[in-house]
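Obj.: predict assembly geometry.
Materials: sequence records (below).
Method: joint structure prediction, all chains together.
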Amino acid sequence: MGNILVIFKKELKSYFASPIAYLLLGIFAVIFGFFFYSATRVFVLTGMQMQMMGRGMPMDVNEYVIRPLLGNASVIGLFLIPMITMRLFAEEKRTGTIELLMTSPVRDLEIVIGKWLAAMVLYASILGISAINIAILYGFGRPDLKPILVGYLGLLLQGGCLLAIGIFISTLTRNQIIAGGATFAVCLMLWVLDWVSAYDQSAWGKVIAYLSVVTHFEPFSKGVIDTKDVIFYLSMIFFGLFLTSRSMESLRWRA
Amino acid sequence: MIKVEGLTKRYARTVAVDNISFEVEKGQIVGFLGPNGAGKTTTMRVLTCFLPPTAGTAQVAGFDVLEQPLEVKKRIGYLPETPPLYPDMEVGEYLIFVGKLKGLTSADVPKRVAEVCDRCAITDVKSKLIGKLSKGYRQRVGLAQAILHNPDVLILDEPTSGLDPKQIIETRELIRSLAGDHTIILSTHILSEVEHSCERVIIINQGKLVAQDTVTNLTNRLRGSESVAVEIQTSNGNLNHADVRQRLEQVAGVSRVVLKDTRDNHCAFEVESLQGRSIRAELARAVVTSGWDLNELRPVGFSLEDIFLQLTASESEKAQKKVEAKA
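Observations (raw structure tokens):
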């Protein structure tokens, strides 16, 4: 446990000591800010139109603004995650510091978990920016808090699973660009798998759609915690971290 | 302290280390010698649990590298060929991280960091970014990292590569000062380094162990006979080098006389003795009683360099002969 903490602190520090963290925070702030502006603008305009037409039905902020925004956040996350994970092992392999880690009295899995936790915290702080935007809504309305929290839980679980996959890919190469590119491709695949279900209703189509990380996020964005989705994400996280520690071990054999 | 038996490491197609066995006693400094690509780094990586052996066993302080890697790692300090440094960390910050990673308690860390900084003379760069340090400082930070948790065994892979002469001397002194409490294995392809800092030498070539012994034994064993350079001159008249040669050959214990240089009243020889005979005194007497002047009488020692070349060359010559025999 202590070892995990040592690795975690070091990784987190190096994220925030380098421009990576701030770059990612900046990118996310700009893109999410744009989506937030458009979503609220459309919401306000539709609301005004409806009032003019004499149908003063109250509109749900949660459903019309927050839900699509959380969906957007998950997609932006998809693009940022490769940039978070690509350096984690690839850089250590390139500079040779991996030798320090692997000859220290620390278990492989402790190294992997420490790094994953640091990546999670960076990802969470990126999501934190979207929370600032959403908090503004409380100044003008009274959105329901619980579905928002559930949505963020979903975002964290989805991010955790993609980060675990990204870390695994980072152990496979000593080139950060390759690690980043491959992670992006895999993230993208796991996202678009969902589209298969649109035109393939067979059993295979369902299986493939099930593998998509986005299908499992939808219930969360609606404020529903479904055990099946939580288990999907947790097992993906476990699987990714397990693969990473195995891959570290195979580094020793292949070297 | 370190026990290696029948160690073999095979990569996909090449055999990097081939059936090596050796032992290192507690407190010894052992030099690991070999040309580039001989398998030095691979052997060290096996000892540090970075690579598992393909066959054979390696034990450090009684713990097997495959069975109890964590116990082995706790007792080893390792400086790889390129020091494992994070360029975006400060020296002090880095050492604190390594200290915790190696399992020092938080109370011990600052004390140990201060100690090793002092020992490796890096206190003045403690708050600098590692990325901004010169090669020599980086090497020293790497060394500080290796000795930080006061390990029983220190494994140093080419600790003086890339340093300037003054730094090399300082590093050697530092290494020697560490002996006693620590068992040290250091690899190098610079021979004088072994002569300067090691008690024992293990020579490997192409993955095979060629020789292992103490430095003095190794030089004696390979030298066997003494070799002396003699320079003789006459103040009056010419000097016939054939006469001189004859006289020198008569000296008891001389096995061979080789003419090196001759000018009108002046000649130089290299004289080799029989196994285990000292001939210098006799030679001097012979020259003086013959009426010549003795300009120089100097023992020509074999350096480790000669031994090394002899050993590694004989290996490749054997291989060459085999190839020729087959052809």
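Conclusions so far: Chain B touches chain A at residues 11, 45, 48-52, 70-71, 73-74, 76, 78, 80-82, 84-89, 93, 97-98, 100-103, 145 (CB under 8 Å).
To do: check interface contacts against the pulldown list.
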